[in-house]
Amino acid sequence: MLSDRILSLADINLNSPNKGLLSDSMTDVPVDTAVAAQAPAVEGLTDAEAEELRAELAKVEEEVVTLRQVLAAKERHCGELKRRLGLSTLEGLKQNLSRGWHDVQVSNAYKKTQETLSQAGQKTSAALSTMGSAISRKLGDMRNSATFKSFEDRVGTIKSKVVSGGENGSDNLPSPTGSGDRPRPDHTPF
Fold first, then answer.
1. What is the distance between the alpha carbons of residues 52 and 48, in angstroms, rounded to a whole number?
2. Phi, psi of 28 (to 5 degrees)
3. Which residues are CB-neighbours of 181 under 8 A, at least 6 positions away?
4. Does the global pTM surpass 0.70?
5. 20 to 30 A Cα–Cα from 57, which one of 24, 121, 175, 183?
């Protein structure tokens, strides 16, 4: 009788492709009723209550075995239906990954991380904006300084002399070629 036997759980490999199937390595191990009767009852339990619990345990274990067999049959049927529909293993993997990514996105940890990164981005943006404003203000202050205005005037003067240098002569500017007043050749290399 099955109520007198229990399934050896150490023999069940849940990572096996044959999980839930009863194989040769999975055997029912009979319970030695003489040892079970000699085992002391847990404190507060009578012998009758202990026997009733053992019977219930055997019944639940029998149901577990039955459910594993049913699950294995359903998995085989599911595999057969997928094969007949032309759904490949790759397609199933894609669906599993998609479902997994969706599960990650709706998880509290993902939402908290996303919120934290969003706040960090906003703070970084605000800091960069503040820094950019400070740099602009400092450049404006520098541009309005007497030193910069003097430098700007000198650059403007040199620029006007360079632009109008061909019309007004050389006006104390050295010739870039060092040739004095000699005319330039018509064929410039650039």
1. 6
2. -80, 135
3. 170, 175
4. no
5. 24
